[in-house]
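INTERNAL AUDIT FORM
Audit reference: QA-55
Scope: verify that the stored structure record matches its stored sequence.
Auditor: D.O.
Record contents follow.
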Amino acid sequence: MIENKYKKLGIGIGLDAIGYLSFVFPLIDIVWAPLSAYLMTKMYKGRKGKIAAAITFVEEAMPFLDIIPTFTIMWLYTYVLDKNKKETIIDL
């Protein structure tokens, strides 16, 4: 269980980097799109996590949209931009 928000940022950057692999291996999106959506729901609970998972799935499944760092953007939204700033916990 990761409670440190900066560890979550590091994991998010790593997961975004995995998404970039589809530029080299395009067929990886078949597995990565649903897996990344699942991981997003585990990292960010509640409605925000579900919405982010849907966006992540579409972004990873569509060709040439993999450049968008959705995990990093979600971290920024959660810890920098969100007015409520509720702490979220990852359960892996």
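Auditor finding: record pair retrieved intact. The chain has a mean pLDDT of 86.
Action required: none
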